[in-house]
Amino acid sequence: MIYLYCLTDPGCEPPAELRGIAGERVRSVGSTGRVAAWVSDLPEDPGPATAELVRVHDRVVRAALALETPLPARFGQSFAGDAALTRALEPRVEAMERSLERVRGAVEMTVRILLPGLPAAEAAEGREEIVPAAGAGRAYMARLRERRQASAELRREAEFLQARVARAVDELAREGVSSPVMPGAHSFSLSHLVAREAVSEYRLAVDSLVKGDPALRLLVSGPWAPYSFARIASE
Q1: 226 with 107: CB under 8 angstroms?
Q2: What tens digit of pLDDT does each residue of 137-149 get?
Q3: Is 199:109 a contact under the CB 8 Å cutoff?
Q4: Best CA proximity match to 107, nearest among 233, 217, 227, 4
Q5: What is the three-state SS of the chain?
Q6: Is 147 exposed, middle or buried (0-12, 13-18, 19+ CB in 10 A)?
Q7: Global pTM value
Q8: Closest CA to 125 of 100, 111, 105, 145
Q9: How far apart are the first and last CA of the chain?
């Protein structure tokens, strides 16, 4: 078996000393000479995901990012062998080429937005409700209204903050995606596909936003491999 880490342009070879899961050497497998894949042999099933296995996967992807921008594979993808991987990739080669072109020369930058404290009732939203006893219906409905109002306020606040960050980095981001704002959440994140040479400018843009409004609580991280943008472009 072989384990898949990422897709790259042909000719992007892993460093000779790079090791993947189970300490196996990482190597490149070509697909019709147009798209390549970084893989390593799997002596046995590595089992369920652990923090260490995820770190190894990411370390290999980071090694590719040091050479060019790869398309990271989802953790845990394995194939019977090189031929099986090639067969799986061949029907989608053109789509993968377009996806590699889309992320070429870019990295992923992430802004975590910390939200104001929420009412305690909000944290309980989504839990199974107990049918109120007779005479308690009015209080029960009041609690439901409070939770709905808190949830709506959370969404409005998140959308407002998301728009502010998006405007600040609009000219620097090729694409952007946001994480869902879950009930009871106190933060959510925005990820942007940013040209490598624009990373410093991106950080400055977010810093300027915070300096203009110290009440904003934003945490910038990156550059990362473009995990949030690794989808294969449709035909």
Answers
A1: yes
A2: 666 566 656 666 6
A3: yes
A4: 227
A5: CEEEEEEECCCCCCCCCCECHHHCECEEEEECCCEEEEEEECCCCCCCCCHHHHHHHHHHHHHHHCCCCCEECCCCCEECCHHHHHHHHHHHHHHHHHHHHHHCCEEEEEEEEECCCCCHHHHCCCCCCCCCCCCCHHHHHHHHHHHHHHHHHHHHHHHHHHHHHHHHHCCCEEEEEECCCCCCCCEEEEEEEEEHHHHHHHHHHHHHHHHHCCCCCEEEEEEECCHHHCCCCCC
A6: buried
A7: 0.80
A8: 145
A9: 29
Angle, to 10 degrees, between the axis of helix 137-169 and the axis of helix 199-212?
Answer: 130
- C-alpha 7 chain-centroid distance: 16
pLDDT digits (tens, 9 = 90+) for 96-115: 999 999 999 999 999 999 88
Q: pLDDT band for position 24 (50/70/90)?
A: very high
